[in-house]
């Protein structure tokens, strides 16, 4: 029977962990996600700055990241108040 | 009268309220539907809209709405005797607060989880929305000023609590880092945080820190108020994960531990209520029970602040519409239980009636100090904890509550200033720092303007805070009532509380107007007039909106739901 007992103990522990984690994060989930998004937006600006005419000394390195951020590009320019892509050779919509 | 019996009566009545009255309201009036697709599912985004387990949501809702106010208000109001405060808290929770809180969640859920502020604009009208913005600003202003005064007073009266209260901030900062950097898992951090907090409470009496009576020409009390605002200002601009989130979490854990200790001590000791049932010998200058009781106890009986939480965050996370009953109504009951404990210890925590009368020597006296001293007496005799440690524990409980409410309140006030900067095109006001400074400035003006240079008289604005809070509740009840009228459902269960609240609020404001005039306190007189004008506008808006919507409902087909 010890396996059964340890199983129920483990289930109880994971339940307790779930409740604690939800209690910690639920109230501030929105605020934290928004501030993370602000950071990411700044990062997007850094990565795409050269294309918009803003000199970026790290352009050589950020160029590599552009394909990786392609998926987020559309959301980003919409969020920044630009209906369509601001870059001529980088169209997404 | 035995405190344990009164506690039992209160708990039984509130349980009946939940089992019978809330079921009736949920099924017959709001008609909560388990199949309704809530905004948490409809707009699920993993950020704001997240279907959440109802027990977790209840915990959040309860800890967000339960602050120092349900302790301070009842502990002041027992000056009229324990019966009026007891009845208003119990009946208020059952017939007012529960219906209001559950209704606010329901109204928001049925309107894409909009906040009660924007609902006022949509459901009632644009004019009502403007009044709402003013009332909300006044509530926040008063809450911040009053709570700074409350904490400063606690720091002066209980120097043993200074170390744990400020130490709790350090504990929260460390907990925040441990979790953010994923150094230790949350269950372990929870234990570490709570143990550290209670270790500080235990160590507090050995290291009392007394602020000198005068520092650089300012009174000790005034210095504490300034320090508190400095802290709250910094806290409100820090990222939330750094301080607010861990602080709220530890506070939540501490709230449940504190409530258990208090209820356990009352049950074990079963003290006698030394305070009179109805006090016929109130100190000179105490205003009349009617209407002041109903604004002195706002949180704990009904509070507009709950509507903001209910419609601001809770409604976006509601998994099923039927959960509104448990989260909203039972959340109100949780707060009622906190107020009930405050009443009991403020009335039974003294050795004799003479001791009690010495504590309640004037209106506004007693309050949180009576809660701490009475509670310490009950815990000491009931659980055997040293009295000074028990007093430190309760002071920390009250101060941390007031502190977190201040952090949040100041942050919200900053948002309002930033929004005004947006509306009136003032670029400087849109920035966080100037907006925070403006918020702090207005709060300091109120704390010192109302209470004089040392800020110690700031508690005079407590009933004024209560009236503004009730006005906010009135506006939320108006939104719910208008929705019910639209749906052709019985409106009396929300309309009667609304009328009662407005009547008491206006009466209290008029009475206070006279008092402030006689005291030649023109600052508060001005503030009173502003709130009175808002109250009258709310009353007129209620009459006009109800008339308009009843006429509209009579010509329209009833809503499908």
Automatic annotation (TrEMBL), chain A:
InterPro entries to which the protein is assigned, alphabetical: CC_star_Cory, DUF7990
Entry's Gene Ontology molecular function annotations: helicase activity
Pfam families found in the cross-reference section: DUF7990
Keyword terms of this UniProt record: ATP-binding, Helicase, Hydrolase, Nucleotide-binding
Matching NCBIfam families: CC_star_Cory (NF041419)
Name by which UniProt lists this protein: DNA helicase
Species this protein is from: Pseudomonas abyssi
Automatic annotation (TrEMBL), chain B:
Entry membrane topology: Multi-pass membrane protein
Keyword flag Cell membrane: yes
Annotated compartments: Cell membrane
Protein name (record): Carbon starvation protein A
Protein keywords: Cell membrane, Membrane, Transmembrane, Transmembrane helix
InterPro entries reported in the protein's UniProt record: CstA, CstA_N
Organism expressing this protein natively: Pseudomonas abyssi
GO terms (BP aspect): cellular response to starvation
Family: Belongs to the peptide transporter carbon starvation (CstA) (TC 2.A.114) family.
GO cellular component terms listed in the entry, alphabetical order: plasma membrane
Record bears the keyword Cell membrane: yes
